[in-house]
Amino acid sequence: MATQRIIDFLATRRPTGPCLVVDLDVVEANFNAFRRALPDSAIYYAVKANPAPEILRLLASLGSSFDCASVAEIEMAMDAGAPAARISYGNTIKKERDIARAHALGVSLFAVDCVEEAEKVARAAPGARVFCRVLTSGEGAEWPLSRKFGCVPAMAIAVLTRAEALGLRATGVSFHVGSQQCNLDAWDSAVADAAMVFDALSERGIQLSLVNMGGGFPTRYLKDVPSAAEYGRSIFDALRKHFGNRIPETIIEPGRGMVGDAGVIKAEVVLVSKKSAADENRWVFLDIGKFGGLAETMDEAIRYPIVTERDHEAKTPCVLAGPTCDSADVLYEKTPYPLPVSLTVGDEILIEGTGAYTTTYASVSFNGFEPLRAYVI
């Protein structure tokens, strides 16, 4: 995953401290792969994955639209060259004044998942288009997104009916099958739920036109994952199965799958130690941890590939931890990580697949450590 361009950059620039380096060539290749895989779906990049201006400008120039979770992200996308018509305010939990600000900027597509949110949109963005997010199980995802967002399909029918009555344009249904979703069949039941909502609204005289199929597209960490083309075939089969020849307008929202494998974090070993003479596992402390951008190691959900210059030597299991004075700042302990026996203080390592959800999760200055620096090349 560390492209030659990234390796050359690190060798030439020799940045001190932990840093993320993102290769734009990989981002462009990923965008084109999604476009080929689902040519009839609009691509709405999930800005939260990595909002670096260089990434947003590249994607805007390629014709991408943008899924935004806040007014700040909307403004980032617009600053990068995206018109308001190519922006979705996809967070189902919004302050009314933020809805009004987005509407004033020209954004007209909003996510809701309850009547109360629809009422806020109706007051702050009259006449806007809304889609209702439905719950999915998230089974098969390494980073599930169930429960907090969405409602059951039966409630989605009531929400969209109410939205239409409030003067909004009930436009469609959205769902998210869970981040890092490796099950090709995960979209099938969600598309079935969407079709059921379409049919129910049609019986009430409301014609929906949009299915937002969310993200979930994975990046490769320690295990191979299906290709964009495989996801495209599976999703199209689900749409054909449940909508027949009346396939609606569709949106996908890749984030991790767009930028995850484009980035590599360079880090340094700060300490290698044991807790007792009988301890089977060494503790390897890095200068980056959960609070420095590796929050997705929570519950060891995401296991990043780690590359060292000593990988040709024998390895033993290690507990991997970050540098801060917080006992939660341990990356891998339940399942220790195999690292070279000779790994020592001062060695540099590369943590691959870190282009998504790292800089945005890094703390501002916990323990005085600076936020994760990033370079986009």
From TrEMBL:
- SUPFAM superfamilies, per database record: Alanine racemase C-terminal domain-like, PLP-binding barrel
Q: Which PROSITE patterns match?
A: ODR_DC_2_1, ODR_DC_2_2
Q: Which cofactor does it need?
A: pyridoxal 5'-phosphate
**What pathway, per the record?**
Amine and polyamine biosynthesis; putrescine biosynthesis via L-ornithine pathway; putrescine from L-ornithine: step 1/1
Would you tell me the protein name for this molecule?
ornithine decarboxylase
Family affiliation = Belongs to the Orn/Lys/Arg decarboxylase class-II family.
Domain Orn/DAP/Arg decarboxylase 2 N-terminal, which positions?
26-259
